[in-house]
Amino acid sequence: MPDLDPALLTAESMLGAFQRQQLTPIDVLQAITERVARLNPNLNAFVVMNPGALQAAADSTSRWRSGRPIGILDGVPCTVKDLVDLAGFPPAAAAAPPVPTRCRMTHPWS
């Protein structure tokens, strides 16, 4: 997939490329991270990036290489709106919940 930007692939295309070992979750994450770095200063769409994303992508790459992905979307990156309270990430500053809450949700790989 040399002429295709991995950051622009659909989840289905990513998964097919992972299965055929034409692309890894690390390749996709790097392409997306570069795209965010290039475009986010003008868009201000991302408040925070997951500091564990590279390790998660590396773990997923290992699973795909051994033929054992952990689920149908293993290695496909996603974004989470900052209004969703996710453990380990700062809540949205402009959208405080009406009552104090404590987040118990964690990402599936923890």
Structure description:
- With 110 residues, the chain is mainly alpha-helical.
- The protein contains 3 helices and no strands.
- Helix 2 (25-43) packs antiparallel against helix 3 (53-65).
- The model has no long low-confidence stretch (mean pLDDT 87).
Question: Main β-sheet, in a few words?
Answer: none
Measured as a percent range, the helix fraction is: 25-40%
Q: Roughly what fraction of the amino acids lie in strands? A: under 5%
What's the helix-strand series?
HHH
Brief write-up:
The chain has helices at residues 11-19, 25-43, 53-65.
Write the layout of secondary structure elements.
Layout: H1 11-19, H2 25-43, H3 53-65
Helix pairs in contact: 2-3
Index terms:
3 helices, mainly alpha
